[in-house]
Amino acid sequence: MAVEVREVEEADVEVVLMLLGQLSDSPAEACSPVDVRRTWQKIRRQHGRTLLVATVDGTPAGTADVTIVPNFTHGCRPWAIVENVVVDRRQRRRGVGRALLADIIRRAHDNGCYKVQLLSNRRRTEAHVFYRSLGFETTAEGFRLYL
Ligand SMILES: CC(C)(COP(=O)(O)OP(=O)(O)OC[C@H]1O[C@@H](n2cnc3c(N)ncnc32)[C@H](O)[C@@H]1OP(=O)(O)O)[C@@H](O)C(=O)NCCC(=O)NCCS
Predict the structure, then answer these.
(1) Domain with 126 in it: what CATH number?
(2) Residues at CB less than 6 angstroms from ligand 1
(3) Rounded CA gap, 10 and 13, in Å?
(4) Mutate to test the pocket of ligand 1, among 18, 83, 88, 93 (most ligand atoms within 8 A of CB)
(5) Angle between helices 125-133 and 96-110 (to 10 degrees)
(6) Residue 34, domain extent
(7) Within a domain: 143
(8) How wide is the angle at C-alpha 88 spanned by C-alphas 51 and 124, nearest 5°?
(9) 13-24: pLDDT as tens digits
(10) 22 located within any domain
Protein backbone atom coordinates (compact mmCIF):
# COMPACT_ATOMS: atom_id res chain seq x y z
CA MET A 1 0.00 0.00 0.00
CA ALA A 2 1.62 3.28 -1.15
CA VAL A 3 0.49 6.48 0.60
CA GLU A 4 1.44 9.70 -1.17
CA VAL A 5 0.63 13.32 -0.37
CA ARG A 6 0.40 16.04 -3.00
CA GLU A 7 -1.26 19.39 -3.57
CA VAL A 8 -4.89 19.35 -4.67
CA GLU A 9 -5.48 20.10 -8.34
CA GLU A 10 -8.69 21.25 -9.95
CA ALA A 11 -9.54 17.69 -10.99
CA ASP A 12 -9.45 16.61 -7.32
CA VAL A 13 -11.97 19.15 -6.07
CA GLU A 14 -15.00 16.83 -6.34
CA VAL A 15 -13.32 14.04 -4.42
CA VAL A 16 -12.06 16.50 -1.80
CA LEU A 17 -15.66 17.66 -1.31
CA MET A 18 -16.71 14.02 -0.88
CA LEU A 19 -13.98 13.56 1.76
CA LEU A 20 -14.94 16.77 3.56
CA GLY A 21 -18.48 15.39 3.69
CA GLN A 22 -17.04 12.70 6.01
CA LEU A 23 -15.77 15.22 8.54
CA SER A 24 -18.99 14.92 10.43
CA ASP A 25 -21.73 12.30 10.80
CA SER A 26 -24.40 14.92 10.23
CA PRO A 27 -25.04 15.90 6.60
CA ALA A 28 -22.78 18.76 5.50
CA GLU A 29 -24.26 22.00 4.18
CA ALA A 30 -23.81 21.69 0.42
CA CYS A 31 -22.20 24.41 -1.72
CA SER A 32 -23.65 25.25 -5.12
CA PRO A 33 -21.42 24.40 -8.13
CA VAL A 34 -20.87 28.15 -8.64
CA ASP A 35 -19.74 28.61 -5.04
CA VAL A 36 -17.44 25.60 -5.34
CA ARG A 37 -15.80 27.09 -8.45
CA ARG A 38 -15.42 30.55 -6.91
CA THR A 39 -14.09 29.17 -3.66
CA TRP A 40 -11.56 26.97 -5.44
CA GLN A 41 -10.29 29.99 -7.41
CA LYS A 42 -9.90 31.97 -4.17
CA ILE A 43 -8.13 29.15 -2.36
CA ARG A 44 -5.65 28.49 -5.15
CA ARG A 45 -4.72 32.18 -5.33
CA GLN A 46 -4.33 32.64 -1.57
CA HIS A 47 -0.67 33.07 -0.70
CA GLY A 48 0.54 30.50 1.82
CA ARG A 49 -2.55 28.32 1.53
CA THR A 50 -2.21 24.71 0.46
CA LEU A 51 -4.90 22.06 0.10
CA LEU A 52 -3.43 18.60 0.29
CA VAL A 53 -4.71 15.25 -0.85
CA ALA A 54 -3.32 11.91 0.31
CA THR A 55 -3.66 8.99 -2.06
CA VAL A 56 -3.52 5.26 -1.38
CA ASP A 57 -2.25 3.43 -4.44
CA GLY A 58 -3.25 6.49 -6.47
CA THR A 59 -6.79 6.80 -5.07
CA PRO A 60 -7.63 9.92 -3.03
CA ALA A 61 -8.09 8.87 0.60
CA GLY A 62 -7.64 11.96 2.75
CA THR A 63 -7.28 15.69 2.73
CA ALA A 64 -6.01 18.55 4.87
CA ASP A 65 -5.74 22.31 4.52
CA VAL A 66 -2.72 24.27 5.76
CA THR A 67 -1.97 27.98 5.74
CA ILE A 68 1.43 29.52 6.51
CA VAL A 69 0.78 32.84 8.25
CA PRO A 70 3.34 35.70 8.26
CA ASN A 71 3.99 36.99 11.78
CA PHE A 72 5.83 39.79 13.67
CA THR A 73 6.61 37.84 16.87
CA HIS A 74 9.13 35.03 17.35
CA GLY A 75 11.71 36.84 15.22
CA CYS A 76 9.18 37.22 12.41
CA ARG A 77 8.80 33.46 12.07
CA PRO A 78 5.42 32.44 10.63
CA TRP A 79 3.06 29.84 12.04
CA ALA A 80 1.11 27.13 10.24
CA ILE A 81 -2.56 26.59 10.88
CA VAL A 82 -4.32 23.39 9.93
CA GLU A 83 -8.00 22.79 9.13
CA ASN A 84 -10.25 20.18 7.59
CA VAL A 85 -8.21 17.03 8.24
CA VAL A 86 -10.18 13.98 7.19
CA VAL A 87 -9.47 10.47 5.95
CA ASP A 88 -11.94 8.33 4.02
CA ARG A 89 -13.77 6.03 6.47
CA ARG A 90 -12.62 2.97 4.48
CA GLN A 91 -8.96 4.00 4.73
CA ARG A 92 -8.58 4.92 8.39
CA ARG A 93 -5.88 3.47 10.64
CA ARG A 94 -3.56 2.89 7.68
CA GLY A 95 -1.27 5.84 8.18
CA VAL A 96 -3.01 8.24 5.77
CA GLY A 97 -3.65 10.91 8.41
CA ARG A 98 -0.08 10.56 9.70
CA ALA A 99 1.25 11.07 6.15
CA LEU A 100 -0.85 14.24 5.72
CA LEU A 101 0.36 15.73 9.01
CA ALA A 102 3.96 14.73 8.29
CA ASP A 103 3.75 16.64 5.01
CA ILE A 104 2.29 19.67 6.81
CA ILE A 105 4.99 19.61 9.47
CA ARG A 106 7.66 19.39 6.78
CA ARG A 107 6.14 22.38 4.97
CA ALA A 108 6.03 24.30 8.24
CA HIS A 109 9.73 23.54 8.85
CA ASP A 110 10.64 24.49 5.28
CA ASN A 111 8.86 27.85 5.75
CA GLY A 112 10.62 28.59 9.05
CA CYS A 113 7.43 28.31 11.13
CA TYR A 114 7.78 28.25 14.89
CA LYS A 115 4.58 26.22 15.46
CA VAL A 116 1.88 24.18 13.80
CA GLN A 117 -1.50 24.93 15.31
CA LEU A 118 -4.96 23.43 15.02
CA LEU A 119 -8.25 23.23 16.84
CA SER A 120 -10.28 20.08 17.23
CA ASN A 121 -13.79 19.88 18.62
CA ARG A 122 -13.88 18.44 22.19
CA ARG A 123 -16.07 15.55 21.08
CA ARG A 124 -13.48 14.30 18.56
CA THR A 125 -11.71 12.15 21.11
CA GLU A 126 -10.28 9.74 18.52
CA ALA A 127 -8.78 12.64 16.57
CA HIS A 128 -7.19 13.86 19.81
CA VAL A 129 -5.46 10.50 20.27
CA PHE A 130 -4.30 10.82 16.66
CA TYR A 131 -2.85 14.34 17.14
CA ARG A 132 -1.18 13.39 20.42
CA SER A 133 0.43 10.39 18.73
CA LEU A 134 2.08 12.90 16.35
CA GLY A 135 3.46 15.08 19.14
CA PHE A 136 0.71 17.73 19.35
CA GLU A 137 -0.07 18.85 22.89
CA THR A 138 -3.10 20.57 24.41
CA THR A 139 -1.19 23.57 25.71
CA ALA A 140 -3.96 26.13 25.02
CA GLU A 141 -7.67 26.69 25.51
CA GLY A 142 -9.41 27.02 22.15
CA PHE A 143 -12.01 29.76 21.72
CA ARG A 144 -14.48 30.05 18.88
CA LEU A 145 -17.27 32.41 18.04
CA TYR A 146 -19.53 30.73 15.50
CA LEU A 147 -21.19 33.24 13.18
C1 LIG B 1 -8.50 11.53 12.84
C2 LIG B 1 -8.17 10.94 11.47
C3 LIG B 1 -7.84 12.07 10.50
C4 LIG B 1 -6.97 10.00 11.61
O5 LIG B 1 -6.60 9.54 10.33
P6 LIG B 1 -6.03 8.06 10.10
O7 LIG B 1 -5.51 7.98 8.74
O8 LIG B 1 -7.08 7.08 10.47
O9 LIG B 1 -4.86 8.02 11.18
P10 LIG B 1 -3.50 7.15 11.09
O11 LIG B 1 -3.81 5.79 10.56
O12 LIG B 1 -2.47 7.92 10.38
O13 LIG B 1 -3.15 7.04 12.64
C14 LIG B 1 -1.89 7.46 13.20
C15 LIG B 1 -1.95 7.15 14.68
O16 LIG B 1 -2.95 7.96 15.31
C17 LIG B 1 -3.61 7.20 16.33
N18 LIG B 1 -5.01 7.02 15.95
C19 LIG B 1 -5.58 7.31 14.75
N20 LIG B 1 -6.91 7.05 14.78
C21 LIG B 1 -7.17 6.57 16.00
C22 LIG B 1 -8.37 6.12 16.64
N23 LIG B 1 -9.55 6.08 16.00
N24 LIG B 1 -8.30 5.67 17.92
C25 LIG B 1 -7.13 5.67 18.59
N26 LIG B 1 -5.94 6.11 18.02
C27 LIG B 1 -5.98 6.55 16.76
C28 LIG B 1 -2.87 5.87 16.42
O29 LIG B 1 -1.79 6.04 17.33
C30 LIG B 1 -2.35 5.72 15.00
O31 LIG B 1 -1.22 4.89 14.90
P32 LIG B 1 -1.44 3.28 14.81
O33 LIG B 1 -2.54 3.01 13.85
O34 LIG B 1 -0.10 2.80 14.34
O35 LIG B 1 -1.80 2.83 16.20
C36 LIG B 1 -9.37 10.10 10.92
O37 LIG B 1 -9.76 9.18 11.91
C38 LIG B 1 -10.58 10.93 10.53
O39 LIG B 1 -10.68 11.37 9.39
N40 LIG B 1 -11.53 11.11 11.46
C41 LIG B 1 -12.79 11.81 11.18
C42 LIG B 1 -12.59 13.29 10.94
C43 LIG B 1 -11.84 13.97 12.06
O44 LIG B 1 -12.13 13.78 13.24
N45 LIG B 1 -10.87 14.80 11.67
C46 LIG B 1 -10.12 15.61 12.60
C47 LIG B 1 -10.75 16.94 12.70
S48 LIG B 1 -9.96 17.95 13.94
Answers:
(1) 3.40.630.30
(2) 23, 85-87, 92-98, 120, 124, 126-127, 129-130, 133
(3) 5
(4) 93
(5) 50
(6) 3-133
(7) no
(8) 85
(9) 999 999 999 998
(10) yes
